[in-house]
Specification:
Alpha-Beta Plaits, 3 domains, Translation Initiation Factor IF3, alpha/beta, 5-stranded mixed beta sheet, TIM Barrel, 8-stranded mixed beta sheet, 638 residues, 20 strands, rod-shaped
């Protein structure tokens, strides 16, 4: 029985006991009063009757007449006159009749008044003794009426007391519920603080809970800060703070092979004649110039979601921009800013050479870099500041206009030319944890199945991602119904969908209607979740009670913002493949990921690796604390 029910039961029982005790005490007191009044009345009436008879020279006939006259008024239950020897001269006894109260009430509270007695005299001689007992039905009526009034009064006071008790409980319940919700939130990996209530006992409890949460947050943030430094040391250039060469190449490989890759633009830039600049300015000033040059790349990185700026070596820089952009405008704007910064250190000379190109999913990394590097070399050969954009092959068979794309996507949705492909996510002992199922689409019955990276950017521009996401979730639930032995199935949700309240509402309704929801794993990219953080928070809260698993994919690229995630109650993280590439030989990433796994496990999150390509990488994962992995190195037979 809950504490509230116990408190209510205690209030009800105590109120009933108080009301019952008050009623009983009042009734006994009233009965005692009526008995005493009846006894006094009996004595007074007996004395008055005896005195009246004594003054009128009594004889048996006269006594009989007077007694009969008095008795017929109906106020007496008994009038008896006995002679001095005890013999009955006159006796009138009222028959048993109705009283002004229920029979059970009369039985429970009998009124026993003593009869009044007085001596009748004739002159100086005793004539007899009169015994008189008044009728008690009027007393019962008065007592019954008094009982009803007291019950009503006590019931009214009980209702008022119950109302006041409910107000007190309500006052206590609100802060107590807040403390309970805070404890539940901690158990669900959400660390929240609450306002301290005014009730002293609850205030102490809330203060203790808040202190615990604050300590947990502090520990989490301190460890996260330490790991961010480890990540930067392992993956960033020490001088400029940009990504280093190895991390850039890992991200580039992931951009060409990932199922959801949307194609990207790559820009290679070179600080011209840096060796001569170093000789002329000296190391300190040259470092200042390089940092200023890198700052332009860093600013450009902030302009585009999930972009990456890197320093490849002393004079070479790179910028990786996801999605489809106006590359020519972007590169010329970058050139203008770079030359403006660099010319302050090297006036009158060429300072900036740029090569760029856009590549699509599936292209080889070496082919991409060789073409863009050749474009950069041609600009360098010209000897002046400049840009060259290389045209890479790919995507010529796809629709050209947004109108064509919209028609084909709508048609695919109507004809259900959609399907999920399946990739295993397995533990280190080969046990299947769940299947990761990205969406694919085709434009006609004989067409090829296109990966999400091909059509998703256009769907985002056309506002069709919510339709595609709902279709993907529905397909996932159908697959769970067809394979009841499946431990779980993961579906990716687009950030552009979750920011729509209507989509979140439709998703919740869909999940409520289906039985397979507890086996469904829903994940959002780290970049998308942080870009639309309020919407992602709302999604986590709205789906928390449905039993599905919630997680982040491509995690770690923005690890510096990990402190924002501690209150969401997530279930798992999928670490980005760029941190997994060559993990067996990358001591810095090993230290970073081991700390990440420790933090995640400390708050109840599972940690999986994305894009595991070699057995050496796979063998390293259990050593640093990961729970499982996905990628080409994972057998599809699990």
């Amino acid at each position: 029985m809950s504490m509230y029910r116990q408190l209510w039961l205690a209030i009800v029982v105590s109120t009933l006991l108080a009301m019952g005790g008050s009623l009983l005490a009042s009734l006994l007191s009233a009965r005692g009063y009526l008995e005493s009044q009846l006894t006094i009345k009996n004595n007074d009436n007996a004395t008055a009757l005896a005195l009246s008879l004594s003054q009128s020279s009594p004889d048996p006939v006269k006594v009989d007449l007077v007694v009969a006259s008095l008795f017929d008024r109906g106020h007496y239950a008994l009038i008896r006159v006995a002679d001095p020897m005890g013999g009955v001269m006159v006796e009138r006894v009222a028959p048993e009749g109705d009283v002004d109260a229920p029979a059970w009430f009369v039985r429970l509270l009998p009124i026993r008044a003593r009869a009044g007695e007085a001596q009748i005299s004739s002159g100086w001689q005793q004539f007899g003794t009169v015994r008189l007992l008044s009728h008690s039905r009027f007393a019962y009526g008065a007592l019954w009426k008094s009982a009803n009034q007291m019950v009503l009064a006590l019931a009214l006071s009980g209702l008022i007391g119950g109302y006041l008790g409910s107000l007190v409980l309500k006052r206590l319940r609100k802060p107590l519920n807040a403390v309970i919700e805070q404890a539940n939130a901690i158990s669900k990996r959400r660390f929240v603080t609450i306002a301290e209530p005014v009730v002293p006992e609850l205030k102490q409890l809330a203060a203790a809970m808040n202190a615990t949460v604050t300590r947990l947050k502090s520990m989490f943030e301190e460890e996260a800060s330490r790991l961010e430094l480890v990540r930067q040391e392992a993956n960033c250039d020490a001088l400029t703070g940009l990504a280093n060469r190895s991390y850039f190449l890992a991200r580039l490989r992931d951009a060409t092979t990932a199922e959801d890759s949307v194609g990207q633009s790559v820009i290679l830039g070179r600080f011209a004649h840096l060796a001569d600049v170093n000789t002329k300015l000296g190391r300190v000033d040259t470092d200042v110039a390089v940092r200023a040059f890198a700052g332009v790349f860093c600013d450009a990185q902030r302009q585009y979601p999930d972009a990456l700026a890197a320093r490849l070596n002393g004079a070479d820089f790179a910028l990786l921009i996801p999605g489809v952009i106006d590359l020519e405008d972007a590169v010329h704007e970058l050139l203008q800013k770079l030359t403006s910064v660099a010319s302050a250190f090297v006036p009158g000379r060429a300072t900036t050479w740029l090569g760029a190109g856009h590549f699509s999913h599936g292209m080889e990394v070496d082919a991409i870099l060789s073409q863009v590097d050749a474009a950069l070399a041609s600009v360098e050969a010209a000897g002046h500041n400049g840009v060259r954009i290389v045209q890479m092959q790919g995507g010529d068979h796809l629709p050209k206009s947004g109108k064509e794309w919209a028609a084909l996507i709508h048609r695919a949705l109507e004809q259900r030319w959609l399907r999920l492909v399946s990739f295993p996510v397995a533990s280190h002992d080969g046990r299947l944890i769940h299947r990761e199922c990205p969406l694919r689409l085709m434009f006609d019955e004989q067409g090829e199945w296109l990966p999400a990276g091909v059509f998703w950017p256009v769907a985002e521009r056309l506002g069709l991602t919510s339709n595609l996401d709902l279709a993907a979730v529905s397909l996932g639930l159908d697959e769970i119904d067809r394979q009841p032995e499946l431990p779980g199935l993961a579906v990716n949700l687009s950030a552009s969908s979750i920011r729509l309240p209507g989509f979140r509402s439709d998703l919740r309704k869909l999940l409520l209607r289906r039985a397979g929801t507890p086996k469904l794993w829903l994940e959002v990219s780290e970049a998308g979740a942080l870009a639309h953080f309020d919407a992602f928070t709302a999604l986590c809260h709205e789906l928390r009670d449905l039993g599905c698993q919630l997680g982040l994919e491509h995690f770690g690229r923005q690890f510096s913002e990990v402190g924002r995630l501690h209150g969401l109650g997530l279930d798992y993280l999928k670490v980005d493949a760029s941190f997994i590439r060559g993990l067996d030989a990358h001591l810095g990433n090993q230290a970073f990921l081991k700390g990440l796994a420790t933090i995640a496990h400390g708050i109840g999150l599972k940690v999986f690796a994305e894009g595991v390509t070699t057995h050496a990488e796979l063998a390293m994962l259990p050593l640093i604390g990961f729970d499982g992995a996905t990628g080409p190195a994972i057998r599809d037979g699990v």
